[in-house]
Amino acid sequence: MEKPPRLLSHPLLLKNRVYEVTLNRAQLTWKKLQTKKKRVSRSIHNSRKHGSVCVPVSEILAVRETEVDGRTESGGRWQKTSQRPAEAYPYAFTVSYVLRVKRHRWRCRDVTFQCADAAVRQQWVQAVRDQLSALAGRPKHLLVYINPHGGRKQGKQIYEERVAPLFSRASVSTCVIVTEHANHARDHLKTDADLKKYDGVVCVGGDGMFSEIVHGLIARTQRDAGVDQNRREEKLAPCAIRIGIIPAGSTDCICYATVGANDPVTSALHIIVGDSQPLDVCSVHQGGRFLRYSVSLLGYGFYGDVLMDSERKRWMGPVRYDFSGLKMFLTHNYYEGTVSFLPATDGSGTPRDKTTCRAGCSRCRCSGPLGSEDGQASGTGDDVSSGEHGGDWRTIRGRFLAINAASMSCACPRSPQGLSPAAHLADGTADLILVRTCSRVNFLRHLLRHTSRDDQFDLSFVEVHRVRKFRFTPGRCESEGDPWPAPGGAGPAKGLFGQMCQDRPAAPPPTAAGTATARYSPTPASTWGCTAS
Length: 533
Ligand SMILES: Nc1ncnc2c1ncn2[C@@H]1O[C@H](COP(=O)(O)OP(=O)(O)OP(=O)(O)O)[C@@H](O)[C@H]1O
Description:
alpha+beta, 12-stranded mixed beta sheet, 13 helices, 22 strands, 24% helix, 31% strand, elongated, disordered C terminus, binds adenosine-5'-triphosphate
């Protein structure tokens, strides 16, 4: 492939050695001219061949002039750059760039070059700045919401100490709002936020906080586009503004599944370089009324119960999930009902095909907002209420311990493969996982497989389907007019969608009887992040 033409090339000093430094539109490279001892790089990405280092321009964060005495101002602090600057190279500049380290983590690395005269330095600083400003998709102004109560209550500290200095170095301006109550961010986005001023919204918190922001942004987008959220046949308008996630929650599954790591610095760097990852959004309706959106897991039965119970034990911190998980495992509730679903066919793959959705996933690219399957995904003529028992809809009746719909792998550090390892982030489908009633021992086997590499669907009581829409009707609802399915065994009946969601409830549990329908829309939202590649 033809190399882009050189923009600049000079011998410059780096750590008292002279390097040939070259810039073109694609990359910045530096290669040692005086070879002495071989140095071993700790970088596993920024390629270093025969003593040369190559950084893609798209991963340069900033460039700045360095003081003559070898110091550079960085976030208000002065840093030493070199102990022995050669007298012949008294003018310095520093380039900050992304260093890819282990386990999909990114770090900010500085390299300081020294020039023989001021004009050369000026040329370099200007040339690098010109290249950076020509890059599309990099944010300049961000609206940041911090949940000070998420996870270990360190959201504010994480942002101030690890993220804000990076934004400032990359000249990204921010408006920071520390939330004062639940749904503060959602309501502010819905009505008050002047979104035209921003290139993106950043969420500092966990999955619940992300869900708030998704609800606020999607509701605002639909209102502006004249889309009625209550009409489930309507196609959702995609959000024009991206959401960045700085993980500061308990599980941070959405961050892990989109970026490949739960690391605030990595996420901040993805935001700065303008990486983008589209996401499917699932809309859930009941009785002609919109209930909520979901981008990760819709869980009814075991997972819904765990999340609902753990919500009441927020004071315990992240350990609440273990406590509630054990409690619900011992309770061993089951739920009777009918699941109907529209299978995703035509090359959508299967939940067991062992593919992993990564940055640039070809499947998701084909099914993007302008994808040819859009009509099918949004259900032309496939109205669940009218066409459910015709066409390609399938129906399964039975007793279930869990009914989960995973719109993404739902991977997190505890379950690195996730609930459905092959689920795609943006193909307009979800993996519907049905766990039928079984013994506690068998259920434990199923749960333990989430923490290992074993095929979690290879069990006789578990089935999985890739779907575009699905519907759940509680068993007793139809026959007895009882709105909610009673858990198998003793205990009070529980609200249908009060039990649902990894994405925390953004709407109150429904009060009317009925069936809930979930529909997957390809990519109405996107995050700054790039699936681990
Ligand atoms: N200032 C606040 N006070 C109380 N609750 C808040 C505040 N701001 C946001 N919330 C709510 O806190 C809930 C949980 O927050 P978040 O998702 O950030 O943390 P988490 O639940 O610990 O993490 P995870 O969702 O990853 O398990 C969200 O549903 C959000 O609505």
